[in-house]
Amino acid sequence: MELYSTNNPSLKVDFPTAVFNSMPQDKGLYMPQEIPVLDPEFIAQIGDRTFSEIALKVASALIGDAIPTPDLKAIIAETLSFDAPVKELDAETYVLELFHGPSLAFKDFGARFMSRVMGYFLRENEKMLDVLVATSGDTGGAVALGFLGVPNTRVTILYPEGKVSEIQELQLCTNGNNIQAISVNGTFDDCQALVKQAFADQDLADKLRLTSANSINIARLIPQTFYYFNAYAQLAREGKTKVVFAVPSGNFGNIAAGLIAYKMGLPVQQFIAATNANDTVPRFLENGIYETRASVQTYSNAMDVGAPSNWVRIMDLFKGDVAALKKVVSSSSYTDVETQEAIKEIYDTYSYVACPHTAIAYRALKNYLAEQPDHELTGVFLSTAHPCKFPDVFPNDVAAAIAIPEQVNELRARTSAAQKMDPVFADFKTYLQELN
Ligand SMILES: *Cc1c(COP(=O)(O)O)cnc(C)c1O
């Protein structure tokens, strides 16, 4: 597999380089040299395949010989240790549940695959890999649980003290083993600044092999294509093949993966990028001006992104042709009030509890379907997290209906430990230098 930088198509690297660097030096993003198109026969018969079979076919096509098939198969088996069911709410409305993994959010797919791919490439390289992550909540849990127990890796997670939910904090702080959490007396931006400084520090670079596990890593995107194919397979079994996906979007990694699946031949009618008040992309599709803004805080805080990092990948997939892009992707933005109304509507109509991110995708899907003359469309909104991770958003009756998953009770039974730190780089540096 060869990849290029979106800022410089002649800069080419192999898969391990892209995985360990995350980002090219020129600050572009890595994209596969070629998006392989799967044979139409495979798509026509996809309902006969299991999730793992589909994932192996898709991953092999994308990765080529970078990882031999038996090893890739093992990585996929470990990645997909949980299911991604499509559930029917009514004849035209389905929800793709992506929250059955260890951190109860879709980021588990990316984190589990990336950690195991890194672990695989590290087999030949004895030096310990130190993963540094700053998190406002969801990413940290997925990365922690993704790397837990992966040989030759060690993870340090920084999170803002008192600013993540109880369950998120448990996911960060109860792992032990090769995972260490630091609770920073400051904001998420302080955490991110500490991590950035660590990457720029020459003493640390000489001593440690540092990597970031952030959402722009190509190894996080690849496994996210799997569940689009698998969702389509589940619907194809019911004879539904005119599918629309609504994706709750922040950094636009999830929907970028869907669009890669589309370019690989998955016959999707439309993608809807649903955002909260952070509406850089809907504004761009409306007026053609791409203007990033500082992020604003909302109930769907994992989507509070003013400058979506994966947008350049989407533009690259469409070779900058905005008209072609707009035929496949539409986008709309919703306020916190609309989010709460959507949560209530889903609960009242279907007795289903959706997290705030998921509720925005539901709203966008329903609004889109209502405008379509074609009544044979099947709408699927992606559910990116389990509602129990965001307890403060729900009215009491809805909150009471949330079934707490087994994983959470297991976490509550464990000891929680985090090192406390002020947002002072010298302290963080000392901490890293003393790792052994
Ligand atoms: C990360 C996240 C999103 C946004 O996904 P992107 O790939 O950044 O667009 C949406 N919902 C939840 C729950 C998340 O954790």
Question: How would you sum up this structure in a few lines?
Answer:
The protein is of the alpha/beta class and 436 residues long.
Q: Helix and strand layout, with pairings?
A:
Layout: E1 2-5, E2 8-14, H1 15-21, E3 30-32, H2 40-44, H3 51-63, H4 69-79, E4 86-90, E5 93-97, H5 107-122, E6 129-134, H6 138-147, E7 153-160, H7 166-173, E8 179-184, H8 188-200, H9 202-207, E9 209-212, H10 218-236, E10 243-248, H11 253-263, E11 268-275, H12 280-287, H13 311-317, H14 322-328, E12 329-333, H15 336-350, H16 356-371, E13 378-383, H17 396-400, H18 406-412, E14 419-421, H19 425-433
Parallel strand pairs: 5-13, 6-7, 6-9, 7-8, 8-14, 10-11, 10-13, 11-12
Antiparallel strand pairs: 1-2, 1-3, 4-5
Helix pairs in contact: 3-4, 3-10, 4-5, 5-6, 5-10, 6-7, 10-11, 11-13, 15-16
The protein binds pyridoxal-5'-phosphate (PLP).
What's the CATH architecture name of the domain at 59-104 and 219-405? 3-Layer(aba) Sandwich
Total number of strands: 14
Instruction: Specify the biggest β-sheet.
Output: 6 strands, mixed
Look up the CATH topology of the domain at 59-104 and 219-405.
Rossmann fold
Bound molecules: pyridoxal-5'-phosphate
- The separation of the N and C termini measures 34 Å
Trace the largest sheet across and list its strands: 4-5-13-10-11-12
Q: Mean pLDDT score, rounded?
A: 95
Q: Report the C-alpha radius of gyration, rounded.
A: 21 Å
Global outline: globular
Uncertain segments of ≥5 residues (pLDDT<50)? none
